[in-house]
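Note to self: user wants both folds in one dump. Writing first protein now.
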Amino acid sequence: MQRRLLLQASRVRSFVAQPVFSKHFSTSVAEISPSAVPESACSKIHAWNQHRLTSDQLQFQALATEFARKELLPFAAEWDEHKHFPVDVIRKAANLGFGGLFCAQDVGGSQLSRADGAVIFESLAYGDISTVAYLTIHNMCCSLIDRFGTTEQRKDWLPRLTSLELLSSYSLTEPSSGSDAASLQTTARQVHGGSDYILNGSKAFVSGGGVSDVYLLMARTGPLGAKGISCFLVEKGMPGLSFGRQEDKLGWRSQPTATVILEDVRVPESNLLGKEGQGFNIAMTGLDGGRINIASCSVGGAQFCFDAALDYVHTRKQFGKAIIEFQSTQFKLADMVTALQASRLMVANAASSFDLGAPGASASIAMAKRFATDTCYDICNDALQLHGGYGYLKDYMVERYVRDLRVHSILEGTNEIMRVVIARHLKS
């Protein structure tokens, strides 16, 4: 059973045994300073949820919480400010099994379920959404190689990827094809009389672009439409592969984002993942898992902001009393925590449906992604509002979570496309 994670978790001071929320749904409240961390920073999943988690998941939660508290939260503001990609910290996560959560153990993976992963990514994202979001993308790439790769590809690539010796990126979106992914124009033409492919085109908004070592990239090998798309493993350093400038983004500033440019890039047939024409199916399989992951990150970020707001309203005084004493504040907090809990449970349900291969799993995942990303952004925005003018300052941490969460309604399929997915299932 997941020995590496469990052995590591057993050495971690148990936060599970601590009360997650006190009478104010958090541990004791300290005097708030601009850079203060919510007192509940080590206890993200409140007691209402512990009954539904397995003993393993409680240990995973404790392990991820400890990592987020020590390795992410204290440095996230600096990484955001300087657009620093903390590769050294990301590689530390591999020592805990976080580099290949869903991969088989024979290639260094932790072989966990998506339900386990949702608990872990929520806990990690509490400390830094941006960095953890990249880790979710890397895990998505690893899981696709594990599922669709040949024995040789799995043995060659995954030990180095699950250990985070190599970093990976997912490359589907193009400058002229976003939501309409099946219209992509990047081409892969097999060399006449040979087996290699020549790739030409470009990919946009690639997380890890220019830094990652391998790009799981979709290109057209056949006719227009989804059935003409294949998936390739493109290695950094291949002649003809280059990168655009690093994008200057509103959020997700601790991870690089760049255009991937392919000009007569020669890729060996051994780097074709799956069969010709299977690429779109591989891409959509990856996005189902990615939507669960990004929704989980949204819940973790919203939990942080809720905790920060809750602590703040107990210490901020106006009109002679703490603003928690005003019924309007109490009602706002009640709505926020209800929405947060609803998001968490929808994500958990989506993860379980994925694990079980349940009918309509893609629709359940689309519902959870649409609901959790929109709702959790609103929770973060409400938390900023409760901070008043201070919430708008970078001295406080809530504004960074608002910026980081905004893109979650766009990536892994826009939330408008999530509605399309849901509607298709209703019609079928």
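First done. Writing the second protein, which came from a different request thread.
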Amino acid sequence: MWSLARAASSCYKSSNITPALNGFRQTRWVSNDSTGNTLSSLQDILADAKSAKPESSLGDRFDYITKPGSSAQQTETDKPEFDMSGVAAYLQSTSYLGDGPYRLHINATFNNTILTLTSPKGQVLASTSGGTAGFKKAARSGYEAAHQATLQLIAKMQEKNLQIVNYHIIFKGFGPGRDAAFKAFVATYGNSCKQLTDATPVPFGGCRPKKARRL
């Protein structure tokens, strides 16, 4: 009986429980008490459910969203401003970037020159290429394109206020922009270079090379 009473009180409206309790009248119940008056107990529950004030429906509980002047309809000026100073300081801290030299990846192919500056942990901080510098098609792999892409990368680093104490340059490929990017970057951060690495993949008897072009 206690479980039946809890079920009755947990419903949102009294109209929802009345049809369910009316069905109990047609069921034969075995009472545990000495009087055996189970039907009267069910009738008391029905009477309490009918006399109880029905609670608000589920839709009424979300009226505060559509009511004018509610907290859900606050204007942009009412909302508190988010302080970005702490986030900017954390993004430049060693706990996020890591402790060690920054990495400058120079991917010099015969079609383009891609420069990527990463943190000691490997997060990409800035990236430029011959295409982003304004060069088109075959000119993207040239010497001047790589030089302008390096200057564009340095400008991005200054905009983000990146304080590079030391860095590590990683080369990949033998394109014409390889030396141009290296000279342009070292001209600005020359004393901070700690290591040079050539990561160009070299096959050891790998796949059969392409047929030589006939010119």
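Dump finished. Worth passing along: The radius of gyration is 37 Å.
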